[in-house]
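From the shared-data thread, chain only:
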Amino acid sequence: MKISILTATYNRDNLLERLYKSIEKNMVDDVEVEWLIMDDGSTDNTRNVINELIGKSTFKILYYKQENQGKMKAINNLMQYVTGDLIIECDSDDFFYNNVFSRIKQDFTKMDEDTYALCYLKYDENECNIGNLFKTSETTMFDLYFKQGEDGEKALVYNAKIRARYEYELVNEERFITEARLHHKLDKNYKIKCVNEPIMICKYQKDGYTKNTNEIFKKYPYGYFEYFKEIFEMDLKGISFKKLLYIIKHYILFATLTNKKLKEIYVNVNGKFNKFLVIILYLPGKILTKLKFK
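Structure, as tokens:
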């Protein structure tokens, strides 16, 4: 079994060795690892740090550099170099928990042709679970978050053969899109297997995406609009009214940020009740968005 770890990094030279050490301490027999790094136009000491790591590493490290285009484009560009059976996308500010590769090796046998990823817990720096425990062993990412009450981050280990058929779809020359848009496309044909064990620790950075949600929404609204528009193509049966309101409110939010009128967004909504909610919430949602993002 071979694992390909994909890391997009930008001016995080001080964090790369921590991630390297977490990979190194997890190495086990019969598990081959390659670490593919895309430097997204860093101006710090990233290249030298990685060269030092390559010089002492017992596993394969491949370094590439592109002009600054954002994390998603960096991951898309790394996919062509993947040779592993499994893919883990690991941000430079994340690192691996203990005995991770042994755990993945054990769970690898549970993956079948309909499984696009193993889904694990992700811990914060205090080793507390980010979100909830899984309620079922097999589901989709859409059902996990919209029907089963999940609200925290998870760590995915992708089936490389399936993952290679998809990419992060960026629109309107934006540089970021939520990973969920990719997952929802995968959900239409495949499932995930859930494991209530952690494989990754996340330490959020002040300049990271998670810490700057509103700024990200304002900067990259077109991709988010497509994401929420595509949710109406999913099976919404079983979604709570609270979640339905969440979807519609954000659909209107990003419609406003992308200057779309009611008649333009109404046609994308399935179901009479959903259309009714869009109509009555459009104007107040538009006003609130204008006030919040002025």
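The CA atoms of residues 256 and 287 lie 9 Å apart.
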